[in-house]
Amino acid sequence: MMPRNTMQPHPRSIKALALDLDGTILRPDNSLSERTVGVIRACVDRGIRPVICTGRAIEAAEKYRAALGAGGPHVYYNGAVVAEMPGWKIHTMILQDRESALFCVDLSRKTGLYCQVYLPGTPERPRHRLVAERGGPERDFYLRHTGLEAEIGDMEAVLKDPAVPGCIKTMFIADAEAQALVRPVIEERYGGDLYIAGTMGPFLELMNPRATKGEGLQAVLNILNLNSRDLIAFGDEENDLPTFKTVAFSAAPANARDTVKAAADMVIGSNADDGVAAFLEEFLA
Hints:
It is a single chain. By secondary structure, this protein is of the alpha/beta class. 37% of the residues lie in helices and 22% in strands. The protein has a 6-stranded mixed sheet with strand order 8-7-6-9-11-10. It has a 5-stranded parallel sheet with strand order 2-1-12-13-14. Strand 3 and strand 4 form a beta hairpin. The longest helix is centred in the middle third of the chain and has 15 residues, at 176-190. The protein is globular and about 55 Å long. The two termini are 17 Å apart.
């Protein structure tokens, strides 16, 4: 498809790629194709830096980052964390306040919907924690999808621990009908004081309003001394829209939400057809 942006980037001007994972460079079965790995590693060889911009936790994205050979700063948790990998050097961390996280926990208890919270690490335990109050199919689904299993605990007690400054992200895992019940309640209570994003179908994610992929990517640009004209951003979900606003050129796969395709400068092939790889092969030829 022809781009809507008449100011197309020139291959020689591109220094980095902002890459969403799920629904964008990952196939529907969450795999990275050999084609995609080969193309992005070829970009690395040409001096074009892959920057992962994902809603996933660091651990849940790590096997993909390693496969792509993508070292340096990356955006995790929808922008709540920018971390240098490998090495776990945290550049920025934007936490959701304790009160709004507790509100979500209470709403989860009242509705029976599955909820989990991501907590920052400590000097003694640098890795982040994932806590839920029960097991069940949602916890199992998340484990299969990301490789991360939430520990079971009292989320209210955990969040009220004075040693916990807040949480990285709160997530409901529920179908669209159930999300439609809780999302308006949260929006009415917090308005613009909480960033709310639907991702990957069953995931409803809540964060500090400053924790967006766009904010995280801007932090990466500052670290790498790049500007918006140096990047192409790829994404398929509403949490990728702030990324599109941070760069001069953006592309959405054919499987993306309609609102995301409308916001992108170009619509490319679907993730099932390795759309990002196909675009890069042609763009860099």
